[in-house]
Amino acid sequence: MLPLSRPAPASAGMTGTWRTYKPVVNLQKCIDCGLCWLYCPESVIDWEKGYKIQIDYTYCKGCGICADVCPVKAINMTPEEGI
Amino acid sequence: MKTLTIQKTALTGNYAVAYATKMAKPHVIAAYPITPQTSIVEKLAEFVEKGELNTSFVNVESEFAAMSVVYGAAMAGARAFTATSSHGLLYMYEATWWTALSRAPVVMAVVTRTIGPPWNIHVEHNDILTLRDAGWIIAMAETVQETFDLTLQAFRIAESAALPTAVGVDGFVLSHSTEPVEMPPQEVVDKYLPPRRPDVPMLLRPGEPVTFGNLPSDNKIHARHKVAAVYEAQQEAKKVISQADEEYGRLTGRRYGGLVEWYRAGDAKHIVVCAGAWCSDAKHAVDYLRARGVPVGLMRIRFVRPFPREEVAKLDQYETAVVYDRDITPMGGILGLEVKAALSRARVVNIVAGIAGVDFDSRHFYETIQNAIDGGYRDLVFVV
Amino acid sequence: MSFRIDQLPKKKYVVPGNAACAGCGMMIGLKILGMALGEEAVLSIPASCAAVVQGLTPKSGVAMPILNVPFASAAAVATGIAEAYRMLGVKGHAVVWAGDGGTADIGFGTVSGAAERNSNIIYVMYDNEAYMNTGIQRSSSTPRAAWTTTTPTGKHERKKDVALLMAMHGVPYVATASIAYPQDFYRKLKRASEIQGFKFIHLHAPCPPGWRYDPAKTVEIAKLAVETGAWILWEYDNGQLKLNPPSTVYVDRAKRKPLKEYLKLQGRFAHLTDNDVKMLEEEIEAKWQTVLALAKAFPQRL
Known about the structure:
The complex is a heterotrimer of chains A (83), B (384) and C (302). Chain B has 384 residues and is an alpha/beta fold.
């Protein structure tokens, strides 16, 4: 009766293509604190304590908040190829 | 076996709305005062205070909030009611459209009143007719008894058709006039009005992540929804209304005929068309003219929406259709325009009268009907 | 009560691939709302960025039940939902998620009405300090001197303090919060959900395109707002008004960072002179004195 919506990835498309800089994590440096997971506005960082983090580049928009909040600077924003 | 008693009493139109609403047992009522509607919500407040009605009675800060509260309640699965008039309806206007396009089955009494300026509390139909394009079902009562009956039926119609439904009650003429009313026993009403389905138009519940109203990925999704909600649902509602009338008749003995009521129209050559309380005066005029040999009948529009197109099309078999409007637009009267659009043969005379609460009684009716039949008017006349 | 970060729920209430701008502060808030009340909340969202970020039907970028509603209506719609649930025996919270325009300006009537009648809703005003969805126009919640497209030389009036206005309605619960302090916001949402009646949380949420800064700085700027004293974290809980950490430290003006550190990262304040900054600092100090006076006036829970 109504055009309803249900939660699904890509409600605005493949937002990873928006990215001009890519967050690259150095897992040697990562202290497993979870702050990047907590602040990621996109929910593209998975974190399980003891297993550190993983970034979903299909949807990461490359805002750089994760790199900015990382207390040990374990995440580097590196230019996307072709940009 | 318990005997069921019909209660006979005398009520004003507003109290008839209140009593019928009480018997419909809404979960949520939003109340905001405006003359001449106020005594509806006052009476309902009294029922709640006395413990006669178990409802959430929400005193809101504006009509816009009133419509928004009943909208939220209806979307969450509740039976919801509010009432307003004139400027109150205009103030809630955005929310009335949102409610219709959400298929939220709210019921609203619109006690019709003039739109200003200047301030004027007397009857006029421009207010309720602003809902005509919004997707609402719009009923117009003629008597206090019908006000009561239509209010009860409105809950069933709104919930079966999944469309908000307005019941027009002419300000003061009906709202503050006392007439005898028969009220069916509560058991009969309960049978007539089964509990609301909480999953229509959607099931809005915590833990169930369903969203309504975010942007469409394709505007055609929205367009199809509009055609379904604004047009198709209204066509389907015709059946719902006819069943509601039929079933109500079976249970109470009172049938009104659905979208329109015909009066002495069978052998007539000319037909009067009107809506609302003044149809009683128009019927007197028809009787008066009939007694003097004028072959005139009447079609009373009970539902302005869904527009009774099939019934109105039958007016082509008459020589003259005299359409009365208690409303005014830059193009003439609203009913006049709509009736004209459905006809190809009959001569249509549109009489805009009684606006701003100007008295228009059966004498005015028979004089103007006679004049229209005699060719004394062009196609549009303003009587003020 | 504090919450350890690894104890927060992992479920994604903000779904990747949504329509929010990169670095959106409001989305951090929405994520925390999901963590705190995602299984209990039904959201009313008026016209706002929050309506747009959901993405396109038939998908939604937010994994909570949402009713999108007219701009000014959210507090009233949520009231209707709350009352329907009470009457139908449905457990859950009617939550409003609205911007500053929808709250401080066009929706203020319905918000004030819901507060006065103590409707049982949780109202979150995420404050990005302008009409960002329509392209950065001034709202009553835009701070003095900030550039917007309708205040090209900076806003001449002060920011409307909606949280204090709500507290003065005498409702059971009002709090300020910041997206830079997710655990504080989380705790406040949890606290609000325990209380019957009207709850209001004013959430400070920076906006990269609207405030003119690098989207990486969203959290940093929100934190600086608190550290400079420009945004004060406080809580009014059943008659008691108190400051929350870390704002408790910044009662002492000397402990606050210079306001300039907050302003200089934002293009919307780029035109400010040192004198302008000084004037803003004095205005902030006056706000502190007001909040401290109120904390003194409302020392105990009722």
